[in-house]
Amino acid sequence: MSVYTPVSEADLSAWLSGYALGKLRHLAPIAAGIENTNYFVTVDDGDFVLTLYERLPVKDLPFYLDLMAHLGQKKLPVPQPQKNRDGSFFTMLNGKPATLIEKAAGAPQIRPTAEHCAAIGRTLAGMHLAVGDFTQTLDNPRGAIWRQEAAHAVRPFLDASQQTLLDRELAAQQPFARALPTGAVHADLFRDNVLFVDPQKTRIGGIIDFGFAATDAFLYDLAITVNDWCLADNQTGAFDDEKLFALLAAYQQIRVVSTEEKSLWPQMLRCSALRFWLSRLHDLYLPRNGTLVHAHDPAHFERILRRRVGDPVFWPTT
What we know:
Helices cover 40% and strands 15% of the residues. By secondary structure, the protein is α+β, with helices and mostly antiparallel strands. It folds into two domains: 9-102, Phosphorylase Kinase, domain 1 (2-Layer Sandwich), CATH 3.30.200; 114-310, Aminoglycoside phosphotransferase (APH), C-terminal lobe (Aminoglycoside 3'-phosphotransferase, Chain: A, domain 2, Alpha-Beta Complex), CATH 3.90.1200.10. The strands form three sheets. The chain has a five-stranded antiparallel sheet with strand order 1-2-3-5-4, with helices on one face. A two-stranded antiparallel sheet has the order 6-9. The N and C termini lie far apart (42 Å). The model has no long low-confidence stretch (mean pLDDT 93).
């Protein structure tokens, strides 16, 4: 778990005076996340998540928080950021922009069934339709430029085989610039960012952690999601066909996927795998200072990337 900026009860009590939520009752660091500092907070008016944004520019925060508010207004299961007495979603705390967000109900389903995958497919498609009238935009900070910069930074730490894979994939993604349906996307919809109220009944209680949200192709968001949710196991990177077909079929029931999107599916799966392999390599070899910091194993996404290259997965025809 990650805490880059410690927050004491005294610090938080003073900051909370800007909200009409009552007194602080409990404060505890959250055992998850690698980008920001997060705490569970209980006040008189309920339970919330306090997030201190460690790397996100202040000018970009309205995009993330307004997106969450927008999706909530569209009746999607997205916990809502809280406005303070001045009507702002965030203010500075211990030198970092900070916000309070509703604590969503439920728990992640780390071993999802096809039914769970169908539920997330429907919800993701609903999110993609819901942002049709969300007018704010934000270039993806983990897009093509970042991939080149991150690759340069981590390359000295890789063996010859890994360097070959990296160089080949960067080259393969260079011409990948076709116009696809785009909008505000989550861009990090992993299993631990979806909370199910009842895992057996597959009811989603909350979509959380919008820290990588950006304006990008909906297909990219979908590829990120299936590369995590639909694996047969964590050792080979192969898909479980039942889970994959369930998620894609449920998605298409809500949002129609174009012929061009389908044709680019194998390449987008590789692109999304490359993005997370690079970020995990960067976190492992070039970590930030902090306490309770956990870096995910980059070998997991290296296996997925190699699998997507060696065994391309095409859009289902039935």
